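U., I forgot to send this yesterday:
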Amino acid sequence: MLDIGLGLPTAVLVGPLAAILAAAILLTSGRPIVIAQTRVGANERPIRVLKFRTMRRNTPVVAKSDLDTLGNVYTPLGPFLRRWSLDELPQVLNVLQGGMSLVGPRPALPTQEDLLALRRRHTVITLKPGLTGLAQIEGREALTLATKVRFEALYKRRLSIGLDIVILAKTVRVLFSSRGTY
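Result:
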């Protein structure tokens, strides 16, 4: 209920910004504007996650921590979009389609076996992935995988609409500070 109840107004609110970003991506980098990546969903079912394209065409899909080995792979707007998490705006559609929630663990790449193994061990793998989560408001990429999964497990144990609302409110603050991104 929360996903649809807040997802629809969010889609309407971010729609104009998304349109401006789509035009800017088209002008600076061409097509495609939005990409769909296979990620691991609830109970390890594959889902297609939408994102604004931030990397050059034909860049391999790897975890953020592995990007340094590829050299300069970003489009002209890529670093800006990623720093402010604007590349993830299309994922509101994933929420409205039911593949993701507003709050939950961030969707993992199928190649992130170390992360998936930790999520299996802590039974976090059963949760629907989210646009944001407890780990995102507590440090994002600055956290180790083990710490991220501990926050995800804590979220699972304390799961409630109230906690989701708190996480969503704190996400706004974290996004505007760009804390924990690189």
